[in-house]
Amino acid sequence: MTTDTVTGSDYGNLVRTHLTRVEQHNAAALDDVAELVLAAVQADGILLTAGAGHSLAAVAETFYRAGGLACVRPIYHPELLPMHGAISSTSAERRSGLAGEVLRESGLAPHDVLFVFSTSGVNYYPVELAQEAANRGCPVVGVTSVASSAQAPRRAGATLAEVSTVVLDNLVPPGDSTYPVDAPVTAAISTLATTFLWNLLMVRLIDKAAESGVRLPLWRSANVEGGDAANADLLRHYQTRIPQLG
Asked: Where's the SIS domain (predicted)?
């Protein structure tokens, strides 16, 4: 993404270049996160996933997804969803105290893992989520952009990257837009990069689980033959701890 000659027809190459950088940059951290998640699965723990604004797209990707982990509990508040009020959602993630309110109902335990998705990583909600979880002895994976955090106002006094156990860096540039290269105004890349990181993690998990003899609780698509039956045991096992499965 350093050339000034990229045109609209080359946008796909720009994205592929970025995702390659993301994969290479996070190789070691992804291994560490996979070990945390595998330990949580073996302890019958839960992965809690959280975000605000458009980072909730990443939360949706983690939950009740064909091929995804059944032990995922999304945590959020309606005020954080832009479709419930765009301006108010921005205000909500900048408000101190909301993270504690949300986590009180989450059942977070030390053998769980909290994923916090926030590309800017500077607002109270993501930072306080991470801090509160750490105070409870729960490991925190911050999925963020270190470069974006460096240029954003430090509203919470710290950044998500600074208070996380492990950081996955989506390498998103400040402002998120990527096109045109010399003066980007459109084509936000955070959702693509963050979803790619999550799937890179899933791939590592599959391989590590096979090596360790661990059976991962994976959803089947409800739209293939036998999918509902395959998912029934998972629903029975997790539904009491993950109310969003109701």
From this structure: 33-211
**φ and ψ of 49, to 5 deg:** -120, 135
pLDDT tier at 143 (50, 70, 90 boundaries)?
A: very high
> CB pairs under 8 A, 24+ apart, for 54-57?
54/82, 54/188, 54/190, 54/191, 55/117, 55/118, 55/119, 55/126, 55/190, 55/194, 56/80, 56/81, 56/117, 57/191, 57/194, 57/195
> 168: helix, coil or strand?
strand
At residue 2, the pLDDT reads 46
Angle at 99 (CA atoms; ends 201, 154), nearest 5 degrees: 85
Kindly report each contact of residues 154-159 with a partner whose C-beta sits within 8 Å and lies 24 or more positions away, as own/partner: 154/122, 155/94, 155/122, 155/123, 155/124, 156/96, 156/122, 156/123, 156/124, 156/127, 156/128, 157/127, 158/127, 158/131, 159/121, 159/122, 159/127
Give the chain's radius of gyration (CA, Å): 18
Mean pLDDT of the chain: 94
pLDDT tens, residue by residue, 84-101: 999 999 998 999 999 999
**Encoding tokens for residue 120?**
């800017």
